[in-house]
Amino acid sequence: MSDLESLVGERLVFGLAGPKLTDTDVKLFRDTRAAGLILYRRNFESPEQHTELLNDLESALDRRLLVATDHEGGRIVMLGQGTTIFPDNLAVGTAGEEAFPYRQGVFEARELRRLGVDLNFGPCLDVLTDRYSPNIGIRSYGKDPGLVARYGLARIKGMQKGGISACAKHFPGKGHSPLDAHLKLPTIDSTWAEMKSTHLPPFHAAIAEGIDCLMTSHPVYPHLDPSRVPATFSRRIVHDYLRQEAGFSGVIVSDDLEMGAIGETCPIGEAMIKTAAAGHDLLLVCHTEAAQRASAGALLDAYRSGALPVRDLESSVERIRRMRARRTARFEGAPAAAEPDAAPLARAIATRAVTVVSAGRPELRRALNGRVGVVFPRFSDLAPRITIEPEIAAEKSYIAGAFAPAGITPETRLVGIEPTDAEIAAAGALADASDALVLFLFDAHLYASNARLLKQLQARSRALAVVLMRDPYDADMLAPGVLGLTAYGFRKCQLDAVIARLVQG
Q: What is the pLDDT of residues 328-360, one digit of tens each?
């Protein structure tokens, strides 16, 4: 096997299909010399299984990999056991204490190192604007670039102090992207002046702090690069600006090249070459073996033919090796376990983040002493797709336990994440029979069925409280007199905090 193949392999970050290592997995990593592994929820069943997976793969290959995962906290969590699930970044930013994200970073780094992770693709340094962002939302620390920079930097310092490489994303900033790049190719019309005043400052702060890694984004920024290619393919944005003008000397990593935004522009092999040519070091192809093999082959051919200069390949590999050299052991620390002080920190953040977005009528307080109904999403339906805490997936027992300390025994109706007409009707009947109703609302601005559910319950409830469970944009849909509360997320610590505020007043 040539040195060129090994150098190309150093830049490849691939995902595996499942939780058990297969001969196909081993052959893929052997054939391509891929040196990076990204872990998803589909790969994780327990810390013990996870440890076995990593050990088996590295033993079969007889070499150490760079192991990465998306552990942002909040709604983006891949390894759900042995870690603490913190509130979303918007909750952290709202809580108003810079020591919180620093301590979070230290704790999550220790937890992830025990699970063998070297590189965490986080935090998000995207800045929100008044323009709706379907994919960022509560993943951002907020709308103030200064706050995003301070809180993001605190988290980065904590993570790297705790022993893991941080990777801020999504450069040059997509907190105002009109589309989800997982699905479609967004266009962001911001000028360089707008980007430099609002979206780029947090990334400049991270660079000045010495962050190990930055991840780019897929949108088209026509005013930043008139060629109208996705930022992932833009040498103007990646090499000329990030590497040269901004002076970033660390590792630049692409977002997943199997996303819909890239898939609608060109085949995966061509995408791989364009992404490398733009100036990226690590190249992510996260899901399918066919795409992984095609991308690796295309990249190798581009260097063999001279279409891409080998000196750039060597420079990328040198940057990657410098980052990898910061940790040589696979599992650092005790066996996988959550940090003992992490859960109290998560609760403190969640409690400080609870926000009243709509003032309710005074009679709601009295009505909570009577018959209380609760309408709650069936989160267990989401469990096959995203990490859902076991307590929240047992929806009715969770609600009973969360309201019990206040002496409230609610009647609970479960509805789908997108409620059916029958579920909406049953929820309406519960509203008719209740003195007070509490609706846990999952994105009525995105799902028409949830908007119908909200409209029905606002019309039929004697006294109504609405808990906004994800992005806070549903606040605009609340009728006068309806109490609106949010903790900016649906993790247990956040729901516990918002229920405590609701029942305690």
A: 889 988 788 999 999 999 999 999 999 999 998
Residue of 255, 256, 443, 471 marked catalytic:
255
280 assigned to active site: no
Phi, psi of 261 (to 5 degrees): -60, -35
Check pLDDT > 90 for residue 461: yes
The C-alpha atoms of residue 31 and residue 194 are separated, in whole angstroms, by 45
Q: Are 342 and 361 in contact (CB under 8 A)?
A: no
Task: Provide the CATH number for the domain around residue 244.
Answer: 3.20.20.300
Rounded Cα distance, 131 and 180, in Å: 13
Q: Would the pLDDT of 1 be above 60?
A: no
| Count of domains for the chain | 2
Q: Is the peptide bond before 405 cis (omega within 30 degrees of 0)?
A: no
Identity of the amino acid at 358 = S
Task: Kindly report the CATH number assigned to the domain that includes residue 449.
Answer: 3.40.50.1700
CA distance 481 to 88: 28
What predicted TM-score, i.e. pTM, was given to this entire model?
A: 0.95
Of 56, 182, 301, 312, which residue is the catalytic one? 182
Quick one: pLDDT at residue 181? 61
Return the amino acid letter for 264.
E
204 is catalytic: no
